[in-house]
Amino acid sequence: AAAMGEMTYGVARGMKNFTMITLGTGVGSGIVVDGKLVYGSDGFAGELGHSTIVRGQEARQCGCGRKGCLETYCSATGVARTARLMLEKSNEPSMLRDIDPDKITSFDVFQAAEAGEQIAKDIFDFTGTVLGEACANFALFSAPEAFVFFGGLVKAGHWILDPIQAAYDANSLASYKGKAKLLVSSLNGSEAAVLGASALGWE
Q1: Strand partners, 20
Q2: Which of 53, 86, 131, 183 has its CA 20 to 30 A from that of 172?
Q3: What is the pLDDT of residues 126-147, one digit of tens each?
Q4: CA 15 distance to own-chain centroid
């Protein structure tokens, strides 16, 4: 629904091939090919958030039952998990240490980055790198005109977007380099999904 909303009313208006990535408590996605949303055989196509990104013992457990899913690294909750792990492995002073580890949020990490803390920047660099590498792989499927990012985590701005772009550029197949735009949704809050649902209604 968010992808339909973006295609009908947002930054993807007029595009025929793009991939929507929603970064909230999880990682959602909608894939549009030739102007049509990809549903698959049963309506469940496009679960890019549950692509296995990390394998082995270090892979994080996902709520879906699998391990190493993109969602466990690049959602708002994934950022909080990364923050806890980095704080455990570092003695670097941080305002994040004043917060109960189980209550750290991605917004707390954003505030620490804005305050100039290197560890917070490292958390976003790690997250953005994982997501940028994943998008370089996703591009192989549909050669999109753009990836459109939506959700609370995108509000971290350049802290998350710059490493996504850098990792995407570094890992894209040569024939794909420089072709897909990385865009931020122009729709606010839940508007994308609501407007997308309305667009589906017109169909």
Answers
A1: 30, 148
A2: 86
A3: 999 999 999 999 999 999 999 9
A4: 20
